[in-house]
């Protein structure tokens, strides 16, 4: 994965990678996708991949929501 970061090509995470990032089970990430929550994934063959751009968008939305709730 690190070689993609150095080439400037978009980096994608698997469902397992996203689950590890959020310290949850891959089944939880799949459920999030099913209910329309979480980062948006794209299906490539049989695998769902998540771009780092989409991961960052989701995290920003979470941070914004948290800031609104604590204000």
Shape assignment: globular
> Strand content of the residues, in percent?
15-25%
Q: Could you spell the SSE succession in H and E letters?
A: HEHHEEH
Question: In terms of per-residue confidence, which ranges show pLDDT below 50 for 5 or more consecutive residues?
Answer: none
**Helices and strands: which structural class?**
alpha+beta
Supply the number of helical segments: 4
Numbering strands along the chain, what is their spatial order in the largest sheet?
Answer: 1-3-2
Mind explaining what this structure looks like?
There is one protein chain. By secondary structure, the chain is an alpha+beta fold. The protein has 4 helices and 3 strands; from the N terminus they run H-E-H-H-E-E-H. It has helices spanning 2-7, 15-21, 26-35, 52-70, and strands spanning 12-14, 42-44, 47-51. It has a 3-stranded antiparallel sheet with strand order 1-3-2. A hairpin with a 2-residue loop joins strand 2 (42-44) and strand 3. Helix 2 crosses helix 3. The longest helix has 19 residues, at 52-70. It is globular and about 45 Å long. The mean pLDDT is 89.
